[in-house]
Amino acid sequence: MTFAQLPLDSRLHKALDTLGLHRPTAVQLEAVPAALAGRDLLVSAATGSGKTAAYLLPVLQRLLDHAAAPGGTRALVLSPTRELARQVLKQARQLSAFTSLQCNVIAGGADFKYQRALLRKDPELLVATPGRLLEHIQRHSADLGGLEVLVIDEADRMLDMGFAEAVLAIVQASATQRQTLLFSATLAGGKIARIAASVLRNPSAIELNSVRDRHADIRQQVLLADNRRHKDQVLNWLLSHEQFDKALVFTNTKTQASRLRGLLAYHRHRIGALHGDMPQEERNRVMDRFRRGHIDVMVATDIAARGLDIKGVDLVINYDMARSGDDYIHRIGRTGRAGDKGLAISLVQAGEWNLKAMIERYLRQTFEPREIAALKASYRGPKKLKTSGKSAASGKRPQQRKAAVTKSKQRHRDRKNIGKRRAPSRTMPAVDLGDGLAPLKKH
After folding, report:
1. pLDDT, average across residues 392-400
2. What are phi and psi for residue 292, nearest 5 degrees?
3. In 231-361, at which residue ranges do the beta strands (DSSP E only) sit?
4. Is the pLDDT higher at 409 or at 152?
5. Of the four, 36, 130, 201, 406, which is 20 to 30 A from 251 by CA?
6. Domains of the chain, each with CATH number or no CATH
């Protein structure tokens, strides 16, 4: 099927043709007709599968089909991060380019008064982060009383970031007679089920593939490292020898991201950094430079792991191992998108081995081991005890087990004798008879 066969407004078809989009992805093929029918949706599809257009097209079609009520925002998309919100806005403006619909964004890091002025213009489609939008609602500068469609994008990430209460407060402030579309990379866990039960009415569930499914277009490797200094050397070697267009390097902390930015700049890599402590204007500038190819390596915390669709990212390096299987799959999902090939490499030292093993079990796959001859690690993984029989089962040597059993029996006897009088000793006490005389002996 092609987009031309979907019942969309001619202006939307024109925008799709201009963008070179002719065939819908699997999630678009399933979600667009269901959303056009007016049903609430609960959708799960892998990162990079085209979820944004899957909800924007039916939302824009609804706004074009129905006359606007006086005042207030008609459609709202909630996104977990500022970067994702701005990306959604960009795609919304591209798809609505041949219409008169107004689209805007409300996110943290921008001037509150300026945003209040934008809201007074009642944009038909509003993209927002939960925290800043809730602030506008509480200050009575945002009106959701006439909301027709609510989209909760990246719902699992929204909950992971602690936005559950803010999302529910926004839902409470929205019109009750509305269509709600909830999109997520995974439906696993009780949190998604609870929030879905709170915001959706008799939803149609669309689950195309699990977040655990192996991504055939991404080669996943593991490189062992001895310590942080060794990791630094391996990282610099990879960025100097691997062939790539753009690379993303993920860390778990802002401090680590800033440190690696300085280190890689010293080694003359075209480097940028992205983390939550950066001013919004700086974050926007770095992302723009990365998209334009003015820098080809980005060091980022997990703020960049979800939702960002950056063309040309063909290498992802986990300098720090991701803290969960979901975080890992969203990190590597920045590459291998839309049928392109990608490479994901995780640097693992001793303290991260169990985390790596846990993620492998979660994903039901084993990562490909890799070594760099010039930087081979001394660490070879956890040591295995060479024991057998009963000794292997207990993990102790026979002498250690015998001593442990003796101590256990002694403790048991001591507990039985609590409160009982002890029998007098049969050995006569020594008597001090003066210097050089021995104690009396029993005959």
Report:
1. 51
2. -80, -10
3. 246-250, 271-274, 297-300, 313-318, 342-348
4. 152
5. 130
6. 3-207 (3.40.50.300), 218-375 (3.40.50.300)
Name the packing angle between helices 190-199 and 164-173 (round to 10°): 10
Query: What confidence score (pLDDT) does residue 393 get?
Result: 44
What single string gives the DSSP state of each residue in 59-105? HHHHHHHSPPPSSS-SEEEE-SSHHHHHHHHHHHHHHTTTS---EEE
Tell me how far apart the alpha carbons of residues 236 and 229 are, in angstroms, rounded to a whole number: 11
Residue-wise DSSP of 187-244 = --SHHHHHHHHHH-SSPEEEE---TTS--TTEEEEEEE-SSHHHHHHHHHHHHHHS--
Instruction: Give CA 323 to chain center in angstroms.
Output: 9
From CA 334, how far away is CA 298, in angstroms rounded? 12
* Alpha-carbon torsion (330, 331, 334, 340), positive or negative: negative
Closest CA to 381 of 344, 348, 346: 348
Count the neighbouring beta carbons within 10 Å of the beta carbon of residue 346. 26
Percent of the chain with pLDDT over 90: 59
Give the pLDDT confidence score for residue 430 in this predicted structure: 46
**Beta strands at 246-250 and 313-318: parallel, antiparallel or unpaired:** parallel
For 326-366, how does the pLDDT look when each residue is reduced to its tens digit (9 = 90+)?
789 888 888 877 667 899 999 999 999 999 999 999 888 89
- For residue 215, give both structure tokens: 């991504």
pLDDT for the residue numbered 427: 46
CA neighbor of 151 nearest in space, from 184, 112, 186: 184
Euclidean distance between CA atoms 226 and 234, whole angstroms: 10
Q: Find the range with the poorest average confidence among 115-129, 282-296, 381-395, 400-414.
A: 381-395
Distance, C-alpha 363 to centroid of its chain: 14
- Considering the chain, what percentage of its residues have pLDDT values greater than 70? 82
Rounded to whole angstroms, how far apart are CA atoms 185 and 200? 17
Number of neighbours of residue 95 by Cβ within 10 angstroms? 26
At 202, the amino acid letter reads N
Are the beta carbons of 208 and 327 closer than 8 angstroms? no
Residue 435 CB burial class (10 angstroms; 0-12, 13-18, ≥19)? exposed
CB 128 within 8 A of CB 78: yes
Question: Torsions phi, psi of 143, nearest 5?
Answer: -115, 115
